[in-house]
Write a structure and sequence with these properties.
By secondary structure, the chain is of the alpha+beta class. The chain has 5 helices and 20 strands. Strand 10 (126-135) and strand 11 form a beta hairpin.
């Protein structure tokens, strides 16, 4: 069998010719005279073409572009070709995940890479993207790395290296250096480039401080006089111009703050605050602000309290203890149900003192006023006519506009005298003679025999007692 020790390339070599020899290593001496036992053959191997992705001319690309270059500036060009026999055209594309902010674009036909916006070197000095090449009509692609360097342009002015205040003793001597300042620049510094310092024109001839450029990107601040007082002026502002001497040259004005402090004899700073000199004369600004804030808060609370009291219509101070208990009024008659909504005036429930008085009905008035019968208001003491008594009460209720509701139940606790009907009291039935005959209990069977004997014996004893009385 034949095997490949390495890969073959159709584009490099399409045909291979091999010469193969076969022999028998184990010969029998009896057949040596029959001739040589070996043979040779020629084998030709053809390499078939396989569809492969495009191949870039270079393994990677590195380009440079000027900082702040306008949109559409050409960065460089990448090139890939199809190595197959078909030699199909190639299309180029920048995968978005390699250029998320889309700073660059590529021409899909010729692979020309251009910018889509101005670039800032101080924000991102290098951009590393990828370009993909794909044959038309095929899905296989090849990617190549493209590194783009943003060339620096002097577009940032210099500034102070630190923004700290300069603390100066009020007893400082004239000619003493109180600070040495330096500068920094976000742009790249070329060889032998340095910063220069000068005082701003408006303070160039001041009587307090002077500046000396040391020619090494630093400057010294000197004091010109003595007798600085914190009460007169505790802070001085010194504007300084800084030039970077670049191409093009840029400069900026930075302000140096000098604060006057109290020091001891060894020039050790004791205090730089101005409050100790203000306190003997009165309160400090912070204390006054705090007091005013408290007063405003108290006024707001009082106004809110008064507004709430006025909304509730209650006095600010309660002089008497109010009785807030619920007043329960009991009525002896029954109302007319849910439909009788005006049987009682709600004022009666709110005013317990008027519960015993007579209030006229507000739902309706009787159309007729019935005259009272003679003697109807005061019935005779010995009258036992209950029917007339009830009719009298009904007539009074119908004709009286101050009477309770018409659909109410009137309860009367009157019982007449001399009625033909006897008393219904169960207590009196024990002493009366009973006309009941309990002989039928004998026919109820043995289960009620005991009961029949008890009532039968009682009847017999009563008869014997009657006969004894007759005799």
């Amino acid at each position: 069998s034949l095997s490949l020790p390495q890969r073959v390339d159709y584009e490099t070599k399409r045909m291979y010719t091999l010469k193969v020899e076969g022999s028998n290593p184990h010969l029998d001496p009896r057949f040596m005279s029959w001739g040589p036992y070996r043979d040779e053959a020629t084998i030709k191997i053809s390499v078939e073409d396989e569809d492969e992705p495009p191949v870039f001319v270079a393994p990677s690309y590195t380009f440079e572009v000027e900082e702040n270059a306008p949109e559409g500036t050409v960065v460089g060009r990448v090139h890939a070709k199809d190595t197959d026999v078909a030699n199909n055209p190639v299309r180029y594309l920048i995968p978005r995940y390699t250029d998320v902010e889309q700073f660059f674009s590529v021409n899909p036909e010729d692979g020309l890479v251009t910018t889509t916006r101005p670039l800032d070197r101080e924000t991102q000095p290098w951009h590393n993207i990828s370009v993909s090449a794909t044959e038309i009509g095929h899905h296989q692609d090849t990617k190549v790395r493209v590194n783009i360097k943003v060339k620096d342009v002097n577009d940032n002015p210099p500034e102070f290296a630190t923004n700290n205040e300069v603390l100066m003793c009020d007893t400082v001597a004239p000619g003493k250096v109180i600070e040495t300042v330096s500068a920094v620049d976000k742009d790249e510094m070329v060889h032998r480039q340095h910063f220069s310092f000068t005082l701003a024109p408006e303070v160039a001839h001041n009587n307090n401080f002077s500046l000396k450029d040391n020619r090494d990107s630093t400057a010294s601040i000197y004091v010109l006089r003595k007798g600085f007082s914190r009460l007169t002026q505790d802070v001085y502002f010194l504007p300084v111009e800084i030039n970077d001497n670049g191409v093009p040259p840029l400069s900026s004005t930075n302000t140096l703050t000098v604060r006057v402090c109290s020091c001891d004899s060894r020039d050790t700073i004791l205090s730089c605050n101005v409050e100790p000199y203000v306190l003997p004369a009165g309160l400090s600004t912070g204390a006054l602000i705090a007091i005013l804030a408290c007063i405003v808060i108290l006024l707001a609370i009082v106004v809110l309290f008064v507004a709430l009291r006025r909304q509730k219509k209650e006095p600010l101070i309660v002089f008497e203890e109010e009785d807030i208990r619920e007043n329960i009024i009991t009525y002896d008659d029954e109302g007319g149900g849910e439909e009788d909504t005006e049987a009682f005036d709600i004022a009666t429930l709110q005013n317990p003192d008027g519960a015993n008085g007579f209030l006229p009905r507000k739902d309706m008035k009787p159309e007729l006023q019935c005259p009272l019968r003679p003697g109807m208001g005061h019935p005779a003491p010995n009258s036992v006519d209950v029917d007339d008594f009830i009719k009298t009460r009904i007539a009074e209720a119908d004709c009286d506009p101050t009477a309770p509701p018409y659909d109410s139940i009137q309860i009367y606790g009157y019982e007449g005298r001399g009625s033909l009907a006897g008393s219904l009291s169960s207590l009196e039935s024990v002493t009366t003679e009973s006309d009941l005959d309990y002989d039928y209990l004998q026919s109820w069977g043995p289960r009620f025999r005991k009961l029949a004997d008890l009532y039968g014996t009682k009847d017999c004893s009563l008869q014997d007692a009657d006969e004894a009385d007759d005799s």
